[in-house]
């Protein structure tokens, strides 16, 4: 009984307070003036919704949201360069279609401006049939000092000339994600980049590499992948690394797991177009030790040693890209 009396008294006090504040012309509304302030009514819920927690639950969600924000502000790279009128002796720039993997295995992504721009695009590499273009984007995350990468595919307009279809390729025309680096770790200073090695001669497969580095110590590991456009699947060719480890352990009692060593993908074998040639090196100071030239099938079925000493093996240059040159 006392509880109901206290509630009635509280309502009367609120009514008197509202009437004295707003004057005689103020119309008292119980739902608005009392219930909405002291009771969890529907009107109160509508006026005071529960806060929504939009924070990412996992690292993958965090990186996905950051990538979306970066894509909204993305700049479309153009292969054309304006001539500076002040440089009167500078010839006009010319855009040419050239072979991509030439010299073999030398193309890398320039990451000098990554921390400043937060996003760097690699060179677009066109298939031998000039119907597909693949490139990668590297994203930098200042909060964790890490970098992740995604590999994209753009289908080219075959109704246009080869150079025009490459120059006019645009992300707004549509792109597909072929592969992305795993970024589910909270470790700091880890950077993962994806770089195209080359297309196969028939244009059905794409070889690319993932370079993993730890900023204070430099490059840590290189992984070799092949994307098969017939199956739509990615195959990581770990078998070649396992073969190198086994060879040096069984023949020379050298345990490479205890040393810093890595593979160096060069390109598709000119003599056997279904295989990829890889060089291996161990870090031994200023002059790395050569661990042999190796070959692996794109399915990862069999890795074999080509030579423990020689690097004189011919690889094909199947992909193409745009290159700006100054022509007199």
Descriptive account of the structure:
The structure is a single chain. 23% of the residues lie in helices and 33% in strands. It is α+β, with helices and mostly antiparallel strands and 328 residues long. The chain has one domain (59-79, 92-326). The strands form 4 sheets. Strands 2, 3, 4, 5 and 6 form a 5-stranded antiparallel beta sheet that branches. The protein has a 4-stranded antiparallel beta sheet with strand order 7-8-9-10, with no helix packed on it. Strand 3 and strand 4 (132-141) form a beta hairpin. Mean pLDDT is 81; it is low at 22-26.
Q: Low-confidence spans: pLDDT under 50, at least 5 residues?
A: 22-26
Q: Class by helix and strand content? A: alpha+beta
Largest sheet, in brief, is: 5 strands, antiparallel
How many β-strand runs?
15
Detail the topology: elements first, then pairings:
Layout: H1 2-22, H2 30-38, H3 42-47, H4 59-72, E1 93-99, H5 114-117, E2 119-121, E3 125-126, E4 132-141, E5 146-155, H6 162-167, E6 176-180, E7 190-199, E8 205-214, E9 218-228, E10 233-236, H7 239-252, E11 261-268, E12 275-282, E13 289-297, E14 303-307, E15 320-326
Antiparallel strand pairs: 1-15, 2-4, 3-4, 4-5, 5-6, 7-8, 8-9, 9-10, 11-12, 12-13, 13-14
State the gist of this model:
The protein is of the alpha+beta class and 328 residues long.
Identify the notable features of this structure and list them briefly.
single chain; 328 residues; five-stranded antiparallel beta sheet; four-stranded antiparallel beta sheet; 7 helices
């Amino acid at each position: 009984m006392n509880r109901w009396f206290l509630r009635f008294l509280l309502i009367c006090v609120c009514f008197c307070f509202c009437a004295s504040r707003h004057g005689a012309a103020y119309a008292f509304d119980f739902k608005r003036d009392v219930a909405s302030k002291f009771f969890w009514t529907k009107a109160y819920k509508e006026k005071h919704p529960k806060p929504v927690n939009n924070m990412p639950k996992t690292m993958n969600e965090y990186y996905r949201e950051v990538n979306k924000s970066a894509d909204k502000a993305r700049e479309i790279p153009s292969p054309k360069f304006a001539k500076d009128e002040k440089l009167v002796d500078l010839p006009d720039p010319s855009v040419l279609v050239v072979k991509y993997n030439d010299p073999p295995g030398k193309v890398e992504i320039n990451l000098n401006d990554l921390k400043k721009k937060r996003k760097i695009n690699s060179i677009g590499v066109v298939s031998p049939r000039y119907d597909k273009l693949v490139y990668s984007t590297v994203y930098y995350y200042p909060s964790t000092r890490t970098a992740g990468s995604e590999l994209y595919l753009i289908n080219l307009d075959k109704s246009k000339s080869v150079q025009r279809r490459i120059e006019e390729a645009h992300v707004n025309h549509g792109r597909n994600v072929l592969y992305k680096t795993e970024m589910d770790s909270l470790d700091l200073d880890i950077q993962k980049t994806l770089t195209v090695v080359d297309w196969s001669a028939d244009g059905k497969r794409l070889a690319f590499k993932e370079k993993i580095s730890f900023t204070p110590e430099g490059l840590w590991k290189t992984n070799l992948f092949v994307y098969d456009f017939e199956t739509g699947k990615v195959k990581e060719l770990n078998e070649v690394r396992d073969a190198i480890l086994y060879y040096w352990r069984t023949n020379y009692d050298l345990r490479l797991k205890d040393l810093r060593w890595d593979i160096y993908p060069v390109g598709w074998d000119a003599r056997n177009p279904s295989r990829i040639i890889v060089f291996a090196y161990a870090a031994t100071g200023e002059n790395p030790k050569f661990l042999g030239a190796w070959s692996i099938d794109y399915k990862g079925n069999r890795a074999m040693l080509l030579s423990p000493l020689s690097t004189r093996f011919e690889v094909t240059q199947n992909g193409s890209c745009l290159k700006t040159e100054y022509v007199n």
